[in-house]
Amino acid sequence: MSLKLVLVVFLLVKVVTSEDTSFIYKGFKSTQLYLDGISELTQNGLLRLTNDTKQQKAHAFHPNPVVFKTTSNGSVSSFSTTLVFAIRPEYPTLSGHGIVFVVAPTKGLPNSLPSQYLGLFTDTNNGNITNHVFGVELDTIQSKEFDDINDNHVGIDINSLKSDNSTTAGYYTSGGEFKNLTLFSGYPMQVWVEYDGVKKQIDVTLGPTNMDKPEVPLLSLTKDLSPILNDTMYVGFTSATGSVHTSHYVLGWSFKINGQAQQLVISELPKLPKFGEKKESKFLTIGLPLISLSSVFVIILSVAYFIKRKKKFAELLEDWEHEYGPHRFKYKDLYFATKGFKEKELLGTGGFGRVYKGVMPVSKIEVAVKRVSHESRQGMREFVAEIVSIGRLRHRNLVPLLGYCRRKGELLLVYDYMSNGSLDKYLYNQPRVTLNWNQRFVIIKGVASGLFYLHEEWEQVVVHRDIKASNVLLDAELNGRLGDFGLARLYDHGTDPQTTHVVGTLGYLAPEHARTGKATTSSDVFAFGAFLLEVVCGRRPIEHIGESESVILVDWVYDCWKTGEILMAKDPNLGLDYKSEEVELVLKLGLLCSHSEPSVRPSMRQVVQYLEMDVPLPDLSLLGLSSAGLTFGHHEDFGNFPMSYPFSMEKPFSHTTQSSTSVTESLLSGGR
Ligand SMILES: *[C@@H]1O[C@H](CO)[C@@H](O)[C@H](O)[C@H]1NC(C)=O
Ligand SMILES: *[C@@H]1O[C@H](CO)[C@@H](O)[C@H](O)[C@H]1NC(C)=O
Ligand SMILES: *[C@@H]1O[C@H](CO)[C@@H](O)[C@H](O)[C@H]1NC(C)=O
Ligand SMILES: *[C@@H]1O[C@H](CO)[C@@H](O)[C@H](O)[C@H]1NC(C)=O
Ligand SMILES: *[C@@H]1O[C@H](CO)[C@@H](O)[C@H](O)[C@H]1NC(C)=O
Ligand SMILES: *[C@@H]1O[C@H](CO)[C@@H](O)[C@H](O)[C@H]1NC(C)=O
């Protein structure tokens, strides 16, 4: 009883003093935390900074100011803080932005933006010395503009989102070994931030909650904070969401000036919501207590059931895959999501396998699951590493890859579900809905920007290898999103270079790609050119008319251009509601990208500039496009090149309607 009284008195005293030099939060239930943005306290006392998908920011601050300069000479005192946090994204592979522990002149940072700005700064005040902000970011997205090193890092930020020092999230064991930690694994982790006012040194340490604080800090910076911090400051957290549902939680927090922050005891902190795992089947517990003939029978049956079930849901999981833990889906979940890969859930059959619609059991997220049959395990490790890395790509014009699962002879890829299906369905074969010019132009620009991102904006160059209308999916707002990137790779790995299987689709395949079997960014540009013509003309790159005749789209558009009537080539379904200069631009750009000489094709950066009309398109007649269709199909000696079209080959045909030699024609005659 008396202890309680003392506590109450202590609390009262705490409220009376308006400046704190130390505090501890063992959960945040009925605390006076300052909250703004979308931050809130949950019923059991967790601080949930974010949970929403909209581009929102969140702030939470200790309500009272903290005096950082306790001596008269104006130097910042030592301080120490520790917190337990967890980042729970909706998808196992994508996360919203991060959490920042922050020391700021005001409660809340009114001059701040969500997403990559983390609720900390804006594009105008970022980096300004008048900010007086010190922060430690736990960042789960790589923002190139702030020189982020990767999408899972800890950084020390002084007045700027460009960290003064940063490193991959993890910790050093007492043996000195570095262990990675995935910030958005969803599991709680602890972070310690310490400033030594004498040595002027900041140390940041991260660790899992089931062990003591690692001895060696993860990250350090020697920096005198005296010019950065004001005499009194506020301490707290900022966080932000982008386009993925993510909950950023803080479970507990302690802070102290001139001393060690009080230890947090995990068992005293509020519990995170349970992960959405289903409980185990109760089958084995049934019947066991009753040892009778019938129960033995039941047991035998259930064991048989289990063995069958186990086989049914068996997966391949090798040691090297453990690091991809968060990207792995359970086969069982995918099985139930797609109602057992029911025919009714089939969305389509692509070059690489069948695609099913699914709804994930717990989260109810709509997904598309692609089953790729693959017997060879050769190259699988590299390939999975690649898809996992591709899964980290984020761009509004790419279909997000959420993860994968592996079984014997089969790979399953899980994508975000795109409600409007693939673009080709809107272009030919008597589409039920035709797209107007504006919609098509938006899709074209979107795909260009997605491909530009793959080629130039991401940390490594990603060659798509199979651009075509059927690989462009339309989301709910009819934005074009590229899917299936990198898949063609699977069939390249480990094959004999002498018999390279060229994967790609005829009509989109650049001549040098067919010849050498090597896909490059310029062979992607070639395919993009075919795609442009496809979208404007509403026709396939190669169309069969009758038994033995075909129209090669690029040749036909070329002929229209040559006679000065390039607009003749456009889809008649467009009607009259179009901007002729845009249609003309896209058709000409399609021709330019289809040039047989890779060096003449523009880069995707240039393509984007042309489409935005920032830069005028070069004059085609100056590029040697004058001599009939030949320009697009240099006579090449295709006599001996090794190739085959194992997956996407269109029906072979013997001659075209054109008398001129075209690329596709020479390819075919060479290929046979
Ligand atoms: C976020 O939290 C609020 C309040 O608990 C809730 O109403 C809302 O549905 C949540 N949003 C998501 C996306 O979970
Ligand atoms: C400021 O005063 C404190 C305590 O008196 C001392 O430890 C510290 O070294 C002084 N700093 C400077 C820059 O003189
Ligand atoms: C922080 O200190 C700077 C420089 O001493 C001053 O200009 C600024 O107004 C102070 N900020 C606040 C919120 O007191
Ligand atoms: C920094 O911010 C101050 C105050 O908002 C402003 O006057 C100044 O121009 C900014 N400096 C830079 C380099 O942007
Ligand atoms: C830790 O993560 C980094 C960055 O993702 C990676 O380069 C490194 O190989 C990983 N290390 C281990 C031991 O997994
Ligand atoms: C960044 O932190 C690492 C790890 O503590 C340290 O080795 C390195 O010297 C620091 N870099 C700077 C610029 O302080």
UniProtKB/TrEMBL annotation:
<dbReference type="Pfam" id="PF00069">
    <property type="entry name" value="Pkinase"/>
</dbReference>
<dbReference type="InterPro" id="IPR008271">
    <property type="entry name" value="Ser/Thr_kinase_AS"/>
</dbReference>
<comment type="similarity">
    <text>In the C-terminal section; belongs to the protein kinase superfamily. Ser/Thr protein kinase family.</text>
</comment>
<keyword id="KW-0723">Serine/threonine-protein kinase</keyword>
<feature type="domain" description="Protein kinase">
    <location>
        <begin position="341"/>
        <end position="613"/>
    </location>
</feature>
<keyword id="KW-0812">Transmembrane</keyword>
<dbReference type="InterPro" id="IPR000719">
    <property type="entry name" value="Prot_kinase_dom"/>
</dbReference>
<keyword id="KW-0418">Kinase</keyword>
<dbReference type="Pfam" id="PF00139">
    <property type="entry name" value="Lectin_legB"/>
</dbReference>
<comment type="similarity">
    <text>Belongs to the leguminous lectin family.</text>
</comment>
<keyword id="KW-0547">Nucleotide-binding</keyword>
<feature type="region of interest" description="Disordered">
    <location>
        <begin position="652"/>
        <end position="672"/>
    </location>
</feature>
<keyword id="KW-0472">Membrane</keyword>
<dbReference type="InterPro" id="IPR017441">
    <property type="entry name" value="Protein_kinase_ATP_BS"/>
</dbReference>
<keyword id="KW-0430">Lectin</keyword>
<feature type="compositionally biased region" description="Polar residues">
    <location>
        <begin position="654"/>
        <end position="672"/>
    </location>
</feature>
<dbReference type="InterPro" id="IPR011009">
    <property type="entry name" value="Kinase-like_dom_sf"/>
</dbReference>
<dbReference type="InterPro" id="IPR013320">
    <property type="entry name" value="ConA-like_dom_sf"/>
</dbReference>
<keyword id="KW-0067">ATP-binding</keyword>
<protein>
    <recommendedName>
        <fullName>non-specific serine/threonine protein kinase</fullName>
        <ecNumber>2.7.11.1</ecNumber>
    </recommendedName>
</protein>
<dbReference type="GO" id="GO:0016020">
    <property type="term" value="C:membrane"/>
</dbReference>
<dbReference type="GO" id="GO:0030246">
    <property type="term" value="F:carbohydrate binding"/>
</dbReference>
<keyword id="KW-0732">Signal</keyword>
<keyword id="KW-0675">Receptor</keyword>
<dbReference type="GO" id="GO:0005524">
    <property type="term" value="F:ATP binding"/>
</dbReference>
<dbReference type="InterPro" id="IPR050528">
    <property type="entry name" value="L-type_Lectin-RKs"/>
</dbReference>
<feature type="transmembrane region" description="Helical">
    <location>
        <begin position="283"/>
        <end position="307"/>
    </location>
</feature>
<feature type="binding site">
    <location>
        <position position="370"/>
    </location>
    <ligand>
        <name>ATP</name>
    </ligand>
</feature>
<keyword id="KW-0808">Transferase</keyword>
<feature type="signal peptide">
    <location>
        <begin position="1"/>
        <end position="18"/>
    </location>
</feature>
<dbReference type="GO" id="GO:0004674">
    <property type="term" value="F:protein serine/threonine kinase activity"/>
</dbReference>
<keyword id="KW-0325">Glycoprotein</keyword>
<keyword id="KW-1133">Transmembrane helix</keyword>
<dbReference type="InterPro" id="IPR001220">
    <property type="entry name" value="Legume_lectin_dom"/>
</dbReference>
